[in-house]
Amino acid sequence: MVKRLLDERRFLELKDHLKEMNSPDIANMLEEMDKEDLLIVFRLLEKDRAADVFSYMEVERQQYLVENIREGEVENVINSLFLDDVVDFLEEMPANVVKRVLKLTPTERRSNINKLLKYPEDSAGSLMTVEFMALKKSMTVREALDVIRSVGRESVSINTCFITDRTKKLEGVLSLKDIVLAKEDEVVEELMERFPVTVKTVDDQEDVIKAFKKYDLDLVAVVDVEEKMVGVITVDDVIDALEEENTEDIQKMNAVEPMETEYKKTGIFSLAKHRIVWLFVLMISATLTGRVIGRYEEVLENAVILAAFIPMLMDTGGNAGSQASSLIIRGLALGEIEKKDLPGIIFKEMRVGVLVGLGLATANFLRLAFFEKIDPMVAMVVCSTLVFTVTTAKTIGGTLPIIAKTLKLDPAIMAAPLITTIVDTISLLIYFYFATTFLKLV
To answer: Quick check: is 279 in a domain?
Structure first.
């Protein structure tokens, strides 16, 4: 309908139609439009709606708009956004766009933007906004409601009000529900909840995510080193941070360096660059497997049948290790597992490995001895290797992510590709040791 109204130049009808649409839907629609149509539709939006739609758009389209609309329009959009959205936008923009935006921003707002831009990337300070509802503990409920009515539109949320003293030190928190339901002459200090949950400006965004999950929050106060309140983080920003963290972990777990851009918007050279480093590392480490096979070449010549089981043993070991590492990495990310749990995890994974290994080995021995008519001693070598390989793989898979965490590395790097490479070498060493011991081949 929008495309048809655009083609027929029925702009008044289009403007009315846009009023009935949600801002995220309009933003998604603008992503698919030609740039000329994008400008027309954006200019038909009401001022407040335009800023809201702008906050949902992709960075490339935001940049195009800022570079192609009038300064008055840019000023309206930027000054209507909450500060955290402005900062997210500016962090992705080239210097000329940042300069243009800051030039159109009032002095006090520009100062707050510059302050937020200086916080470390992925820190609580970089996620927060300074537009929150602050009340004094000496206020009555009537006075608090007057403040909320007068400045509430400038706050990111009025559902949670923060109580601060003259030095901006956080003293308590109070919900709008409690304010509305209280008597007008009651004092805020008597109603507020003391010792609210807070995060520090320098805390990593992973710690912020954990705080939201642990305390079931939709808004959290951010304080500086002096415990003075400087901003708040909303649940929508945490969801964005969580998506970013999960995406990064998934990429690392599959031996891909983290990428900032979406797959469809990333060029082939950039994709290759982010993949080749880990592939090179894994390729070099995989030469250990080749060296092991080369060292036991005489064993394979004397019992060629042994070579047929190498892929099965290596794959099973790699898969077993990946199962364990995936669970431990996820547990570390959710805060369910800590570094001190390492001894218990080693003991548990060893027992799990023995149980799983014995189950797989029993089924495999029956298949080899009775269905494929393999020499029972060869079948015993293969199945014994299977038990030790699975046990070793699960122990290694459960251990390495915690060791990485202890060394202040990302546990996600100790995932399937690296675990598989390590376990492959170990499983072959075990296999050939059993072969030379039980079959007396050399």
So the answer is: yes
